[in-house]
Amino acid sequence: MNKTLSLRAAIYARYSSDMQSAASITDQVRICRRLAEDRSWTVVEVFTDEALSGASHLRPGYQQMQQAAMAGRFDVLVAEALDRLSRDQEHIAGLHKRMRYLGVEIVTKSEGSISEMHIGLGGTMSALFLRNLAEKTHRGLEGRVKAGKSAGGISYGYRLDRQPLPDGTYTTGDRVIEPDQAAIVRRIFEDYDQGLSARTIAMALNKEGIPSPRAGGKGSGSWSFSTISGNWKRGTGILNNDLYIGKLVWNRQRFIKDPDTGKRQARLNPETDWITEDVPHLRIIDDDLWDRVKRRQGAIRADILTERAEDPGAPKIERAHRPRYLLSGLLTCGCCGAGYIMISSTRYGCASARNKGTCSNRKTITREAVETRVLNGLQTRLMHPELIREYMTTWQQEMQKERQESLAARGDQERRLAKVLRDIENIVTAITEGMFHPSMKAKMDALEEERLGLEARLAALPDPEPVAIHPGLAESYARKVADLAAALNAPEARAQAADLLRGLI
User: Fold this and answer.
1) CATH for the stretch 158-162+173-310
2) Distance (Å, rounded) from C-alpha 70 to C-alpha 150?
3) What sign does the CA torsion over 406, 409, 410, 411 have?
4) pLDDT-based confidence at 374, cuts 50/70/90?
5) Structural contact between residues 43 and 11, judged by C-beta atoms closer than 8 angstroms
6) What's the rounded mean pLDDT across residues 99-127?
7) CA 487, 491, 496 angle in degrees (round to 5)?
8) Boundaries of each Recombinase domain copy (predicted)?
C-alpha cells in the first residue's frame, strides 16, 4: 500500500478482574499490533485499562481513547474483540455512533470491521453473558448459604476453618467462633442492654485498644457508633447481625450499578427473597439478651420518629443528601484531621472525639460563631487588594491554559485535514495517470466523508481570543461575597448560601 494512504491506528486493550491475568493486556496489544501491521496501518497510540469491568464506561484508558478520537489523533480503533471495548449494549452502541461521526473505523481481531449488525448482536450476547454470569454466581452462593457456609466475608467474632481434604485441597466457607472476638461481641450486647449508648461503648473499646472489625483492612481500625449500631434494616452493625443468634441470613440486599457513574448502590430486597438457614454452632448471643437489645433499639427508633414528626424543621427526605448547615462537610479538626460535625443543635465538635474517643480535642464552637468568622474572612480578608490580584492572575492563567488546549485541538484537526486532502489529491493523481483500482473508490469515499467531518468540526470550533482580564472581574468577585452574606441572613435561602460558599472556598 502507498505510504501516503497509511492509516493511523489506536489500540485499546482491557482485562477484567475475573480474568486474573495482567499478562492479558500484553497479549491483546501484541495481537492488535500484528493486525495493524498486516493492514499496513501505523500504530500511533495504545490505551489500556487493567482489572476494570467492561460493563462500565468510567475507565481511564477508555476515556482517554475517546478524547484522542475527538482530537482527530487516529483513524482506526483496533481491539482484540468487541467485548474488550464494552459489554454494555448502550455504551458500545454509543461508542460506535460516536466513532462513525468522527470518521474512525472500529476493527477487531475477532469480528473484523464493526458494523451495526455486530453492535446489535455482539452487544446482546455480551449483555446476556453478564446476566448469565451474575445468575450463576448468585445460584452458587445460594447453594453455599443453604449448606450453612459463608457466601463471602467473615463477620466479627468468627474465623474461617479450613480442613484438609483427601485430594490435597482444603474446605472453604466453613466458620468457627473466634473466642476472643466473641467475648467482645457479648460485652457489646450486655453493655447496650445495661443502657450504654453505642457511642459510649465504641469510645471504651478504643480507649482499651481493642482492634475493631476493620483493623488491618480498608477502614480506620477504630470502633465507631456505626460499627456497633449499623443499619437495622440492612442487618449491618454488631447489634443487628443475626449470625450471633445462630441464623444465617443472606440476600437481604442487592447491588445495582448507576448507569451514569458506574458505581454500585445497595437496594433492600423484599423479606420474602431472603434466605435464612439455622447455624446453631455459630450462636454467640442467647435469645433473651438479643430480644432485650431489639426492644431497646425499637424504643429508641420510635422516639426519634416522634421527634421528627413533632419538629417542623427536621430535614425532609428529598433534602436528606443536601448539606443541612452552611459549613457542613467543610470543617476539620486541627488535631486529628477528622471532620468537625454538629454535636448538638448549636455547636460543632470533633467527630473522632465525639464518636470514637480517639482524639483529645474536646473544644467546641457554636455554629453562629464559626459561620460569622468564615463570612468575615470572605468579606474582609479575601477582599484584600493583594488577594484579589492573586485571584485575577490565577483566573487569567486558567483561561490561558484553556486557550492553549483549544489551539492544540484545532491544530490536530487542521493537520489531519491537510493529510486527508493530500491523500485525496494522491488518489486523483493516480487515477489521472491510469493507475485506477476498484479499491480506490471506497478509499476516496471514506476520505471525502472524513474531510466533511473535519471541516464541520473545525467550523464549529470558536476562534480562541487572547485572554485579557475582564474589567468587571473584581466587581463580580465582590458581588459573590455580598450575595453570600445576603443569603446567609435569609433562612429560606440557606441552601443557596451553602452552594455559594462552596463556590468561593
Assistant:
1) 3.90.1750.20
2) 48
3) positive
4) confident
5) yes
6) 77
7) 45
8) 166-303
What mean pLDDT comes out for the span 345-368? 86
Q: Which residues have C-beta within 8 Å of that of residue 59, sequence separation ≥ 6?
A: 14, 49, 52
pLDDT tens sequence across 264-319: 677 788 888 787 888 898 999 999 999 999 998 888 887 777 666 655 554 443 34
C-alpha distances in angstroms, 9 versus 33, 65, 310? 9, 11, 66
Strands (E), 127-283: 158-160, 175-177, 247-250, 253-257, 264-268, 275-278
Q: What is the pLDDT of residues 318-337, one digit of tens each?
A: 344 445 677 777 888 988 88
Cα separation of the two ends of the chain: 58
Task: Identify residue 175 by its one-letter amino acid code.
Answer: R
- SS3 label, residue 337: coil
| Helix H or strand E segment including 410 | helix 385-432
Give a three-class secondary structure readout of 162-188: CCECCCCCECCCCEEECHHHHHHHHHH
Give the whole-angstrom CA distance, residue 170 versus residue 161. Answer: 9
- Segments making up each domain of the chain, as ranges: 3-132, 158-162+173-310, 383-469
Query: Whose CA is closest to 43, among 32, 52, 51?
Result: 32
Cα angle value 196/199/204 (rounded, 5°):
75
The residues near 488 (Cβ < 8 Å, ≥ 6 apart) are 326, 371, 375, 494, 497
Reduce the DSSP state of residue 377 to 3 states and report it. Answer: helix
Cα separations in angstroms, 456 against 96, 449, 465, 494: 19, 11, 20, 46
Q: Is the pLDDT of residue 1 over 50?
A: no
Residue 282 in contact with residue 246, Cβ under 8 Å?
yes
Q: Which three three-digit cell numbers place residue 196?
A: 450504654
| The CATH fold of domain 3-132 | Rossmann fold (3.40.50)
Write the CB contacts of 200 (distance below 8 Å, at least 6 apart in sequence): 191
138 vs 250: CA distance, rounded Å: 11
For 461-494, the pLDDT digits (tens) are 666 665 555 556 667 766 766 665 566 555 555 5
Confidence (pTM)? 0.45
Q: pLDDT digits over 426-443, tens only?
A: 888 888 877 777 777 888
At 497, list the grid cell. Answer: 448560601
Cα distances (angstroms) measured from residue 350 to each of 230, 339, 360, 364, 373: 21, 6, 9, 8, 18
Torsion of CA 40, 41, 47, 53, to 10 degrees: -70
Please state, in angstroms and rounded to a whole number, the distance separating the CA atoms of residues 191 and 486. 49
Higher pLDDT, 17 or 86: 86
Q: In the sheet where 347-350 sits, what is the strand order?
A: 340-342, 347-350, 365-366
Q: Is 238 helix (H, G, I), strand (E, B) or coil?
A: helix
